[in-house]
Design goal:
The protein is mostly helical. It has a domain of 207 residues. Helix content is 73%, strand content 2%. β2 and β3 form a beta hairpin. α2 runs parallel beside α7 and α3 packs across α10. The chain is globular and about 55 Å long. The termini are close together. 45% of the residues are buried.
Amino acid sequence: MKINSRTIDMKEYGIIVFFLLLMLTLSFVARGFSSTENLINISRQVALVGIVAVGMTMVMISGGIDLSVGSIIAASGVTSAYLITQTGLNPVFAGILGVGVGGLVGLLNGFLISKLNIPPFIATLATMAGARGLAYVITEGMPIYGFPDEFAFIGQGYLSFIPVPVVVMILVFGVGYFLLNKVPFGKYVYGIGGNEEAARLSGVNVGNVKLLVYVINGLLSGLAGVILLSRIMTAVPNSGNGFEMDVITGVVLGGVSMSGGEGKLRGVLIGVLIMGVLSNGMMILGFVEYYQWIVRCFVLIIAVGFDRNIGLLSSRMGRTSKLPISS
């Protein structure tokens, strides 16, 4: 007979336990951490990371990575700001065009990766520099400000007691869940990440799926850039600097495999919350920014190391479970 065993999903349940322990610890050691005002502030802070994390999840499940998201945030934000202040364009249309800039950079990423076969790391590293340079060209290195008051709603407003950015994040997660779990597109994304050649032989248009994945990620990064602009009401070319690290760390913490083909959005949400709670807790405890970067470094290393080693352990357990054992 063969062994039929049910193994605990350590990635999914372990991250939930860690999140609860982190919340409990900070509630005791960080004064004011568990206040309603601070928890709402945390939710607003994680909203932007969460929005981009949905797109990054699709990219990483497909076996890729996108290092350009922080620069897209900057380019999209300053484009919207320039259109509002210099051309007098309606803020709604300016915001849509800003999101469109993100989509165009995502389209370029997808084209370089899926059509020219440039490795995702190299392609998105190049567009990271290009999009950041575009932000500096548009602003000439100077901040842009002077927006109408109503523009602040998407970044600073509330629907009932819930911040608008959080509402947007919830909607984005809902759409992302639908795409990954309820339509064939999601099966294609998982299939490509698990075995690209097998997906191609099954009739999947691998190039087009990859292209669409990077466009979605670019659009969501552009949306985050417009929301960030609305939140701070100032466009600066260095906004979103280092943003890709928080997003990638949150996604990997949430159980998305760096090798592709594996991951769930509900885990990503927990991973993003952990990054937000950790950053907020460190600020309350008086950690200067430089030490926060060191902590993020170790969190990313631990998350990736755990991902690699639990994958090897699961593979070995899978091979072992297939061995016949006499009863």
